[in-house]
Amino acid sequence: MTRPPSASLLAALRDRLGAKGYSDDPDAMAPWLTDWRGKYHGRAAAMLSPGTIEEVAAIVRLCRKDKVALVPQGGNSGMVGGATPDASGDQLLVSLRRMNRIRHIDEAAQLAVAEAGVVLENFHNAALDHRLRFPLTLGGKGSATIGGLVSTNAGGTQVLRHGTMRALVAGVEAVLPDGSIFDGLAALKKDNRGYDLRHLLCGAEGTLGIVTAACLRLVPTAARCTAWVGLETPEAALRLLHRLDAAIGRELEGFELIPHACLDAVLRHIPQTRAPLGVAQPWYVLLELAGESDRKLLEQLEEQLAAALQARLIGDVVIAKNDSESDAFWRLRDSISEAERAEGPALQHDVSVPVEQMPAFIAENPRRLSRAFPGARALSFGHLGDGNVHHHVQPPIGIDGAGWLAEYGAAVSGLVYSHVLELGGSISAEHGIGQMKRDILAELDSPARLAALRAVKTGLDPAGIFNPGKLIG
């Protein structure tokens, strides 16, 4: 059991971190005690903002001795409440935002070492200065940090070609629950010293270690070709994906499936957006190729999309003429979550199913929901290329939405997740478990998996001071 921090512990932390690194001012802490969605609200005895790994280690050693809980936090842009303290006020929030240096970028090796507090968009820009790019992006790139992306094994829109964060992490530096420093930044291609702590920490959501830096894989800058495609059904989108994958292969980097209802919400709530096509279609695909030659990419894409039009696989298409148009297309996709939030309360489910099953899930799950919960509305969008569905369930029209969610939300999510597992999928595709999915994971997941997760947690953090109440409790 963890304990509340004593006055002497808080004084020791204040002395060690100084004014820049220690705050118990309620106004200064307030923005960081509520998650991005506004679903979870916590309290903290203090917010600790270390500037070096030595300061992180000192924090952990002091708190381990007194059995005081620590909640690591990056950009506070997570979707499952994984970086929000509980309501007791006994936990300490550890913000990594001051650790925001890019230590070096090696152009020849195509590797970079970035500290946990580096904002993703800033990292993108720094890599571009070296004629390289970091091939992971998402809508929250202006606030998401490297440490948070590692800790949640983030995904995004380029997983189809480059994999999740775990595939891009070549090394990790972290402070472990006993206060020791794990220096695993060396990007070794072969290392058979037992368990891979790098992979263990990636996706652990701060329950096994506080990530302070990561060595990340970069790729050369590339020309790109972006298209917005209108079509009738998710099944048609899947056939288009297979056609392009067979004809173009690895140069196909992004393939996003979007229903018209999501686009309509973006157009109504996000300023300076417009529909790419003149006539609305039931579904859209936003796809992007990346390669060495923009002319070759354009020729390939035009040829394949012309054939798809002729075969009536797609209904309409527009290809971006320049980077500004490409960015405008992606802004529509990246603004969906913001627009959905403006639409009112909803249950968001970040799930994955086998790619071939994604159209079936999108069609069948709303039918199951409407039978069990008359009037419930479901919208699905996401990364068709890797089977990741963002499945949002909205209350019936004309009722107290918040009240409906309070009464039926748990049962609705249980139905969605049971269907996902029935198809061999996962209840968390890219946003983690946090506190939002902790109980449903314990209820529905494999006993063998849960036992292994708990054994790892107990072995590394027997005092239970690292992010308690998240992932596995």
Ordered list of secondary-structure elements with their pairings:
Layout: H1 7-21, E1 22-23, H2 26-29, E2 46-48, H3 53-66, E3 70-73, E4 92-95, E5 102-106, E6 111-115, H4 120-129, E7 132-133, H5 146-151, H6 159-162, H7 165-168, E8 169-175, E9 181-184, H8 197-201, E10 210-217, E11 219-220, E12 223-231, H9 234-248, E13 252-259, H10 260-269, E14 283-291, H11 294-310, E15 316-319, H12 323-334, H13 336-343, E16 347-352, H14 358-372, E17 377-383, E18 388-394, H15 401-422, H16 438-444, H17 447-460
Parallel strand pairs: 2-4, 3-4
Antiparallel strand pairs: 1-2, 5-6, 6-10, 7-11, 8-9, 8-10, 12-14, 12-15, 13-14, 13-17, 16-18, 17-18
Keywords:
473 residues; alpha+beta; Uridine Diphospho-n-acetylenolpyruvylglucosamine Reductase, domain 2; Uridine Diphospho-n-acetylenolpyruvylglucosamine Reductase, domain 3; Alpha-Beta Plaits; 4 domains; seven-stranded antiparallel beta sheet; 20% strand
Descriptive notes:
The chain is built from 17 helices and 18 strands. The model has no long low-confidence stretch (mean pLDDT 94). Helix 9 packs across helix 11. It folds into four domains: 91 residues, Uridine Diphospho-n-acetylenolpyruvylglucosamine Reductase, domain 2 (2-Layer Sandwich); 119 residues, Uridine Diphospho-n-acetylenolpyruvylglucosamine Reductase, domain 3, CATH 3.30.465; 114 residues, Alpha-Beta Plaits, CATH 3.30.70.2190; 89 residues, Alpha-Beta Plaits, CATH 3.30.70.2740. A seven-stranded antiparallel beta sheet has the order 15-12-14-13-17-18-16, sandwiched between helices. It has 473 residues and is of the alpha+beta class. The protein starts with 6 loop residues before the first helix and ends in a 13-residue tail after the last helix.
